[in-house]
Protein 1
Amino acid sequence: MFTGIIESVGTIRRVEPRAGDLRLTVAVGKLDMADVRLGDSIATNGVCLTVVEMGADYYVADVSQETVRRTTLADIRSGCRVNLEKALTPTTRLGGHLVSGHVDGVGEVVEVWPEARSIRFRIKAPDNLARYIAEKGSITTDGVSLTVNAIDGAVFDLNIVPHTVQETNIGDWAPGFKLNIEVDVLARYLERLLLADKAAVPSSGGISLSFLQEHGYGHSH
C-alpha cells in the first residue's frame, strides 16, 4: 500500500523488452534507497512494481503483460520522468489516502490553465471509471493523491498547488498527456457491498440506475 505522497521524481534509465513484457531500470533521484530490499515495492507513476535488482541510485523492475496493457508503461521511454513512492510502513504518516498501486485505467489531459498561483487540469477518465469519481473525493493520477474539484461525466478537474507541481512530474502534463488513474478503493468496495448476493453472479455488470430503483433508491416519497 501507498499514500500517494510522492517522495521523488525519478527518470527511466532503460526500457528492455522481454518476451512480450518489459524490464525497467529507474534512476531514483532523491529517493532514499538505504532501507529498500529486493522484493520491496515502489510505486512508479502509480504502478506498484517489485524491485528485482538495485543499487544506491537505481532499481530494476519487471512489468508484466497485464500491467503493460492497463497502464501508461506501455509507452514509457528512456528519459521519461516518473513519480516514485516507497511502500508505506506502520509508522508512515498517511498524508494522502490509501493507494494500492493497482491502476484502474489510463486517462488523458484535455485542458490546462492557470488559476491564481495554482494550475487547473481537466482530465478525461475511461467511461467505466466515472461512477467511482466524486467531487471532493480522492483520486490517484500518476501516483499522486489528489482531490477532485469538479466532475462532469467522466471528465474531472484537479487544482494543483505550486509545491505539488515542483515535487512531482505534473509539470510535464499537457493536453494529450496520458496518465495512470486509480480510483478510491473505498468506492470499489462500496459498490461490491451494495451488490450483496448479486456480487457472486458472473457478469452482473455492477450497479446501474435500474438496480438502485429495484432496491428502493431513487424513488420519490
Note: The two ends are 43 Å apart (CA to CA).
Protein 2
Amino acid sequence: MIDIEFATLSRLVGEHLAARGWRLATAESCTGGWVAEVVTATAGSSGWFDCGFITYSNDAKCALLGVSPMTLARYGAVSEQTTAAMARGTLERSEADLALSISGVAGPTGGSPSKPVGTVCFGWARNAETPQTATCHFDGDREAVRRQAVLFALTELLRRYT
C-alpha cells in the first residue's frame, strides 16, 4: 500500500534536491531506515539520494559515523549533540551534500524522566555548515512515534534548506 503523505513529501524533497544538484544521505537510529525507505520508494531517487546508515547501537554510531564515545557518555544517544555528530559523520562518509540524522526513544520501553518515550532528536547538515538540530516529543505507540519522526525529519529538511 502506498502512503500518499510519504510519497508526496518524498517527491517534494527529491524535486528540491535535484533542482539544486544536491544528494541526500541519512543516519537513522530509532527509525531503522524508514526515511531511506521513503525516499528510495520515489522513482528517480537515485539522482538525489546517496546512502543511508542505520546506526542503532552506540557502537555503530561510533564505528560507522565517527560519533565520539565522549559525546555519547556525556549527552546520551538521544541528544542533539549526538544527532549533530551523526549528521556530520554522514557527510564525511558519503558523497552527499546534505545529511539528516535521527535518534530517539520510540518505546514502549526505554524512556527516562529526562527523555521519556516519544523523545526524538534530529540533525541536518550541509557541507561546510554547522549542523542544525531539534528535539520533539511525539505521542502514540512505537509505530506512531517513528512515523512522526520520519515526517518531521523530511518536512524540516524542506523548511530549513529551501
Note: Residues 122 and 153 are 7 Å apart (CA to CA).
